[in-house]
Amino acid sequence: MSMRNRFKKTIQLQDEDVYSDSGPSQTDSPAPETSDLVKLELWNKKHSLQTEVNKLKRKHESSLFATRKFLFPLGVLFGVLLAFAFVQPSDIQDMHAQLTLLMDQYDVTLPQLPDFDFSRFETEWNKLRSNIPELWKFNRDGREFQVGERMKARGLSAEYPVVLIPGVISTGLESWSTSPEYRPFFREKLWGGLNMLSQVTFNRDRWIAAMMLDPVTGLDPPDAKIRAAEGIDAASSFIQGYWIWSKIVENLAVVNYDTNNLYLAPYDWRLSYWNLEERDGYFSKLKTTIEAFKRRQKKKTVVAAHSMGATVLKWVESPEHGGGGPDWVENHIEAYISIAGTHMGVAKAMAAFLSGEMKDTVQMNPAGSYVLERFFSRAERRKLFLSWAGSASMWIKGGDTIWGNSTFAPDDPSEDSNVLDANDVRGRRSGHTHGELISFRRIPVSVPIPEEGETETRSTRLMNEDNGFGVKNMTSEMAGDWILEHTPSSFQKMMATNYSFGIERNEDALNRNDRDHTKWTNPLEVKLPNAPSMKMFCVYGHGKETERSYWYTRGDFEHDESAADGISPLCIDPDTGSNQTGPCAGSTPRNPLDMPLLRKSWIDADYTDETVNPKVRNGVKMGEGDGTVSLISLGAMCVEGWKRRRWNPAGINVTVVELSHRPVPSMPRGGANTSDHVDILGSTTLNEIIVKVATGAGNEIEEAFVSNIRTYSQRIQWD
């Protein structure tokens, strides 16, 4: 046999040995009986390599983390912990109902299971829950009823009836639609509760269609009908475990409040204030309830309103609406407590209407942001926001007078907050101001700069013209007009017929505004009620970073319902009394050449710089506030505006209580000293204030300040 043939045969034998799968283990195969030294050497090398491979394989397979087998038990453990944190025994029945609803919807049939007695299960469940520290429970943190117990121990008891008015998105909304596609959800909550989560997940398009209002009428779309839930449960919790008003209700109950002297006034927060009365008679019902309290109990009522709910009293006085007359508030309202009131608007509302974004969306981690955009895009969110006319009441008010100009804002940060004024630009470390509500960087990080010699793209060239985007940095007034130009004509008409956002100093004009419903949500254009004996309290949090202004970027042109970047972006309609007729009705048709005339705009989330002041995080310039509402909106009117007779002719005493945000990191909702915009409703101090006012001990409440709001407010040109 030639050397070449012998070598080929040896290699063939080697391949057969190495790749053979016969036998229990290749490492246990005996050595070949041959005197061929080459073959023996190959066998030894193969045997050695196979042994090493098997050792490595066994080591890898024995590692729990390498095989990721730990993920399943970890998920089970996490689910059990969430169950203990959120689920109450009564929720088991709700889960069964939700499962049945989904099975019916998708025609899923399971065999009939025998009935199960849950009584024993409920007992054991409660026993297990009781052994978990209160610290780790989302819906309970060990402070339940404590404020009420302390007040009761002092001998305090229910003195005045109490009305609670929730803020925006706090009230649960139920489906009353009877069209076939919505019948499976009849009387189910489409906003709030576990059912909302299942509908958003499995019926997203149908849920959006039901929640979106008609853009022309501002009322229910065809075949869909949604109404506010009723009763105290309508806004006690958003979903199981996430309380809203429940802690306040618990503490009031300890001092002898119940449904006979406590009323929660839920409302469909999607509606404009006009439609809220026209469709649901909301303000008429509220007026009737308070009058009934006065007849039965011979006492005036304490009103506690949160967030957007803090702007509702003017309706009851108007002869064309509530018909209560100028003295109605004096005769029926003992005290008014504004809790984190959005008196002069919210910056995040402007961003939501412009691009469907806010701090909460741009500061998500990349994976969460990607999922959100794929599941519920910016354009879809914006379209939904634009249909909710009620949220437009939070459009910022007062313009540049309140929010600042291109060189100065009253709440601009500085090295020395006591010396900053309109001319002190050097006092700001960054030289930038919150007065520019929307700013544009010349070259955003997300747009690549062409290399030398490379032909400049059209998009990059456009962004380098006129401050990079064809628009300049904008103050609040400029931004308000610009955002409005970028909305459909139906939204523009809705705004014109429902709201006003200026500032009025003329007393004769303020008197006329008493009959103009478009002014009633703006405290700068309407007077406080003629109620000299009414006590008024402004209670809000401070110490949590809050979005105050934005860095934006722009992209390509796109088709939209508005030709915002065209020649005539604003809607012009001589018929100002209707939002259903005229050239502004419905959607603006596409232009004759069918050219895309709207440029995409979005928060420049790539831009972060925490070394400047104000700091920038993901395109959001951070300021002071309660995490949602800026300090200027929360407190300036309470501290300075209502001290002036033109806006407070009766001289109502306004007491301001600022609460420092001092959350406990290990508690999901912050604990007793949180002052977050929503979590403040569980704050011990706020609960004490409400219970004291309701039980007749409101005279014990003293003003308290933890911010520079008095300094900021004095920089505003009120007169």
From TrEMBL:
GO terms for molecular function: acyltransferase activity. The chain crosses the membrane at residues 70-87. The keyword S-adenosyl-L-methionine does not apply. Residues 408-433 are annotated as: Disordered. Keywords: Acyltransferase, Membrane, Transferase, Transmembrane, Transmembrane helix. It comes from Lentinula lateritia. It holds the Pfam family LCAT. InterPro entries: AB_hydrolase_fold, LACT/PDAT_acylTrfase. The keyword Zinc-finger does not apply. This is Lecithin:cholesterol acyltransferase-domain-containing protein. PANTHER family: LECITHIN-CHOLESTEROL ACYLTRANSFERASE-RELATED.
